[in-house]
Amino acid sequence: MISAILLSISLFGHGQLNTSSQHVAGWTLKITRDPYADQTSCSLRKGRVIFERHSLVFDFGAGTDTDNAFFRLDGGAPHSLSEVKIEDERNGFFDNGVSLKDPLAGRVVLPVSAVADAKEVSIRLSPKYGPHTFDVRGLADALAAAKSAGCGADFA
Fold first, then answer.
1. How far apart are CA 25 and CA 156, in angstroms?
2. Which sign, positive or negative, has the C-alpha torsion 80, 26, 47, 92?
3. Would you give per-residue pLDDT tens digits along the chain (156 residues)?
4. In the chain, where the domains are located
5. Pick the CATH number of 17-155 from 3.60.21, 1.10.357, 2.60.40, 2.40.160
């Protein structure tokens, strides 16, 4: 009986996922390794900012309309989300201008290439609301750590 239990543990224990987290420049990098499939998956976030598919996703909560949002980088000139829509489409977020996700999911998606050198991103959802400011410092260091951890093509 004991040998059957030990055999079961050795057979099924090898495929266990191994998850670790590290903090890099204010960002949380979660690394999950699957030894059975020989794969590594990762997630990167800082507060309500999530890295996904070469983009930063700013989460304002479900039910929030973000279609008319404007953003500023480090207090610079305002930019409409339409200015980055083509790159968002290339990253898989939109298809022919229609959100692939719920349009009221409360997310603003900005490609990393648009915010790479910024320290902060300020987003105003509409003229009714004041801007929300997000600290994005340390993104380059966090992406480099993800790449060195084997996180895959999204982090390259």
1. 18
2. positive
3. 444 443 344 445 556 878 888 999 999 999 998 888 888 889 999 999 999 888 899 999 888 888 888 999 999 999 988 887 766 677 666 644 445 455 557 888 899 988 988 999 999 998 988 999 999 999 999 999 999 998 877 776
4. 17-155
5. 2.60.40
